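Researcher: Batch entry, complex prediction.
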Amino acid sequence: MGQLVQITTGEGRVWRGTLVPSHELSGERIVQLKLESGYNVGLHLGPSDRVEALPGAPAAPEKEAPATRTNDRSTAEDRPWIALLSTGGTIASRVDYRTGGVRPVRTEREVLGFFPDLDKDGPVRMVTVSDRLSEEIRPEDWLSLAREIVRVFGEGAQGVVVTHGTDTMAYTSAALAFLLEDLPGPVVLVGSQRSPDRPSSDAFTNIVQAARLARHPDLGEVVVLMHEGLSDDRFAVHRGTRVRKMHSSRRDAFRSRDGPPLGSIDGETLTFCGDFRHRSNGPARLSGTLDPRASILWFHPGLDPLRAAAFVKGQRGVVIAGTGLGHMSLEHLPWIRSAIAEGTVVVMTTQCLAGPSDPYVYSTGRELLRAGVLYGEDLHPETAYAKLLWALGQSNDPAEVRRRMLEERAGEFEARHQAVEPG
Amino acid sequence: MGQLVQITTGEGRVWRGTLVPSHELSGERIVQLKLESGYNVGLHLGPSDRVEALPGAPAAPEKEAPATRTNDRSTAEDRPWIALLSTGGTIASRVDYRTGGVRPVRTEREVLGFFPDLDKDGPVRMVTVSDRLSEEIRPEDWLSLAREIVRVFGEGAQGVVVTHGTDTMAYTSAALAFLLEDLPGPVVLVGSQRSPDRPSSDAFTNIVQAARLARHPDLGEVVVLMHEGLSDDRFAVHRGTRVRKMHSSRRDAFRSRDGPPLGSIDGETLTFCGDFRHRSNGPARLSGTLDPRASILWFHPGLDPLRAAAFVKGQRGVVIAGTGLGHMSLEHLPWIRSAIAEGTVVVMTTQCLAGPSDPYVYSTGRELLRAGVLYGEDLHPETAYAKLLWALGQSNDPAEVRRRMLEERAGEFEARHQAVEPG
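Model: Structure tokens for the complex:
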């Protein structure tokens, strides 16, 4: 125990860390390592795995220069750093005692004032991207944020934390996942459901965990980190394209679609439940742009086809939240056919918000498919919308936009991954 | 065991049934009765409860004339009967082997052909109200269905089963709950997720349970009955105003909002988890009508305020599915203020689909409230929409419509029932 070791697996993967006591339930051949990132991993040792004792005390992160783990902030410049991009929201809000409501904090100083321990694991460079509640964030803000992320990775950030209001955080995480390519580190969106000057706030624990996750030596995708369950020290790591706010007030409001989250943090231990995208060698880059000429239409009994037609008119795309497997009244076929003839991309999803859309089960789905409706498989309407804005930004040709919509880009089609392997 | 007894509680409630063995975990003072409806109830006996042994064998239902429990269908006319109103949907669908898709069955004969055992507990009178998949059902169909329900209760039905496509069943159940008053028996909506000519179909078990529940001696409200969990013999009874289809393909697709369903059926036992509305003395009646000049608008980042304004223009009401506690960008304030000034009722709900809406937590909610937006508490957007059509049908005065929207009518505001007592 306490020995610094390096484990090389049969597949050539290298883990370095300090041996720590295993869980009581662990089998004989499982060793538990504390990595430099602060996370523990349990490794199941096979006959082809090689274990070496290393000299010296603190473990070095896998892909980083050795860092002395001190709280001496004066040596910050040459130590690995993460960027914290602040956009506003409850995590950076406080109660306005005049009105009793919550308002965004206005200055970086106020934010740092809330989280004095944020940089205890290493330097954090803060950038205020916006200071709005998340219902005010627009697609052009997604683009600015993506550009800012590319910039800070270009300057050498090890990872990025984005503080964000929870209301539209899942829209933003999906948009960033489609916009960003070759990420050399994690982009962790984090919010809180209770403002940081309230006793029950989840702001402190969420942001501290997000900062740790941003230093993860291997993760290279856009994720959302929020509380999981009712315990104070459990957190879920959701894939940015599979997550949704499913409760208006609980701390564990976020859920991954149709299964467990990508990863779970329980106290000191991070466990991935599925394959995650690994850090690229970079440089991070922005893939194209967004075209915001699209929107989401909720189908319901009594929805007037003329009104729906007028709502869609003049846009390049629409995501319909249909019923069940992706249905709507066939009264709407005339405007759908006209819109498609004019080059509008019509995407069908399900308002059930779980389970697939599927045009092949009922006659209605077949009719809509024949009319040219594109079925968005198991995408949330919000994710389909973010992807549509991105796909529209790639090309003016509807056929090319449709092709992009169906091509997997950021782990968004869970139904295509039948076998989920541990990462 | 096997003795027919009558139990009169301290509060004057009377239960008659046959004593059956209690569950192993039941305490000494809990007796289990099999009622004539076929359901078992567990009764916790208090000191003021009175138990009498009754002569004769089968128990009589509380409010019905004694019925001999035989399969002799020739005596059907003078035995208690239920009505089965068929509207179409998967439960009355079959695979079209030409296309491989599912199509509605077209005749009552076809429906009866599927469910030969439907009337084994007593007569069932069938009425075909429509034969459409549920995405084709419109608010005017909700009205026709409500009128038909009033008619069959008027003719003496003990209860009503409505077979319905699952896609929009929760919209219909909410609309019926707001439209119908003084129900002298249950109205049980039932559907299936797999068509009855497929081996995995849930149509048979669901419809048989629905027919039993329609004979319940005490229930007098609109409910949805569907599978619960993965077992074949568990069913959930959802309050018609608190339920939503939350999965596109699973048999247990329906969920009650923010808590357990109103009741659960496990094999032979029906257990109510909350207070239910009891049978009225009738006669059932229709309260007013529906005004369909309203719709649901899904707010999302990038939603153009001018487009939203045009979508709402000319309608008497709109339900907004806002983010989080019921928010949207304040860019939309100008059209909201104009719409309200013109007499449109603007109702806010949450697209999270769980948890309350609440205008008092954030500055955005307060601004929307000040502009005259009505917060729909913890109503699903669909329930709020059905209630809005009903409220608009009650009055031309927006103030009166708003008053109706906030007045509880059919157990729709769960947040107001902090203490839930067993029924």
